[in-house]
Amino acid sequence: MQKLTKEIALNYLTEASKLNPGPWVEHSKYVAQAARNIAKKLKLDYEKAEIFGLIHDVGRRFGKTHMKHTIDGYHFFIKEGFPDAAKICLTHSFPAKSIGDYAGKRDCSEKDHKFMKDFISKTEYDIYDRLIQLCDSLALPSGFTIVERRLIDVAIRKGINENSVNRWKAYLEIQKDIEKKIGCSVYSLLPGIEENLKKPIDYL
Questions:
Q1: How do residues 169-188 score in pLDDT, each as one tens digit?
Q2: Domain limits for position 151
Q3: Opening angle at CA 149, ends 68 and 185, nearest 5
């Protein structure tokens, strides 16, 4: 079985960026950098974490979609022969293990919606799933940010629903758990975060 290397992951991201250009591409690069830095502190395979950060949103290659980008990424990497990457594409948007928590349009087919619901409920999240979920909430296209600012950003752009608070709590619980494991704030591992916090969010 072919190994998903960083070079291959970058090629996938580059190809996707040409098919559907947007701020999500730079966001993905920052997610990857955060994942690498935090994974090192956790004594995980930091290259694997970085790769997952690079590809977590590659489902956006198929167009400007909302929830659908998660299942599109899953199907894409299953076909490419990378089931671990496929899993990350699907799990990264559901920290509370409920697809009802998703912020944004639920633009999946009925068949895909059922598959996603079953997959998320039955899948045991590992440390890499949790790490990418956290890093997704630490990265804007302009650089690193605090979790709360990222959650507000998403809420302004995509709206909220009756389950949003559960989703926010899940991100904060992941942050708390990982910081307990590493013995420091995740923000101390994100270069340039203080400067980036001074910038306006320019893609609302």
A1: 999 999 999 999 999 999 99
A2: 6-197
A3: 105
Per the DSSP assignment, residues forming a β-bridge with 140 are 143
In a domain, 202, yes or no: no
Beta bridge partners of 128: none
> Which residue positions in the chain have pLDDT lower than 50?
203-204
Compute how many other C-beta atoms are within 10 angstroms of the C-beta atom of residue 45: 13
Q: Is residue 135 part of a domain?
A: yes
R_g over Cα of the chain: 16
> Is-contact 128 172, C-beta < 8 A?
no
Return d(Cα 115, Cα 134) in angstroms, integer.
Answer: 24
Predicted TM-score (pTM) of the model is 0.96
Decide if 1 is inside a domain.
no
Residue 157: per-residue pLDDT: 86
Structure tokens at 125: 């999240």
Structurally, how many domains does the chain consist of?
1
Specify if 203 maps to a domain.
no
**Alpha-carbon span 194 to 204, nearest angstrom:** 20
CATH number assigned to the domain comprising residue 133: 1.10.3210
d(CA 9, CA 50): 9
Q: Using one digit for the tens of pLDDT, what is the confidence trace for 106-117?
A: 999 999 999 999
